[in-house]
Each structure stands twice: as structure tokens, then as C-alpha cells.
Amino acid sequence: MNSMFREELAKIPADMRKQVDLSWAIADKIDALLKKRGLSQKEFAHLMGKTEPEVSRWVGGTHNFTLRTLAKISTVLGEDLIKV
């Protein structure tokens, strides 16, 4: 990593970096569970009552999930996405 990149990265507030890390972790978990269950994004969207593009954004890692949505995803996929 070059020094200019490190300097710019250091300017990002820690809470924002944590939010991005969490968003990516949730997206990765959803993607892994879809593969584990043999579900396509289209099939999962149908089970969730959502559109395929919306699910695609979820798996893209930039969606700001509500607790309600996280609970529904966990229920539909049969596994907790987060543990507290």
C-alpha cells in the first residue's frame, strides 16, 4: 500500500470504516448462505418479497440494513447473520 493511500485511509473516521467492514461481512454471509442453500438471488428475492435488483444491492455490500430486514433474512435463510 503506498503512503498516499495510507494517508487518505487514515482520514476516514473509524466508525465509518467499521460500518463498511460490517456491511461487507453481512453481504459475504448472505452470499455464502445463498450458495449453501443452493438459492439464486432471484429465488431468494421471491422468498423475501423483494426484487432481484434489491437483493443484488444487498450482496454488493453497500446496503444499510434495518434490524427488521436482517431478522427476516436470518429467518428465510435459517441462520443468524449477526450475533450479539
Structure commentary:
The protein is mainly α and 84 residues long. The chain has a single domain, classed as Orthogonal Bundle (434 Repressor (Amino-terminal Domain)). It has five helices and no strands. The chain has helices at 3-10, 14-37, 41-48, 52-60, 67-77. The N and C termini lie far apart (33 Å). The mean pLDDT is 91.
CATH fold-level topology: 434 Repressor (Amino-terminal Domain)
The secondary-structure class comes to mainly alpha
Q: How far apart lie the N and C ends? A: 33 Å
Shape: elongated
What is the H-and-E element order? HHHHH
Mean pLDDT score:
91
Number of domains: 1
Would you state the CATH class?
Answer: Mainly Alpha
Number of strands: 0
What's the helix count? 5
Main β-sheet description: none
Low-confidence stretches: none
- Evaluate the radius of gyration: 15 Å
- The CATH architecture is Orthogonal Bundle
Instruction: Give the amount of beta strand, in percent.
Output: under 5%
The CATH H-level superfamily is lambda repressor-like DNA-binding domains
Helical residue percent?
Answer: over 70%
Highlighted features:
434 Repressor (Amino-terminal Domain), 84 residues, single chain, 71% helix, mainly alpha
Topology:
Blueprint: H1 3-10, H2 14-37, H3 41-48, H4 52-60, H5 67-77
Helix pairs in contact: 3-4
Short structural summary:
By secondary structure, the chain is mainly alpha-helical.
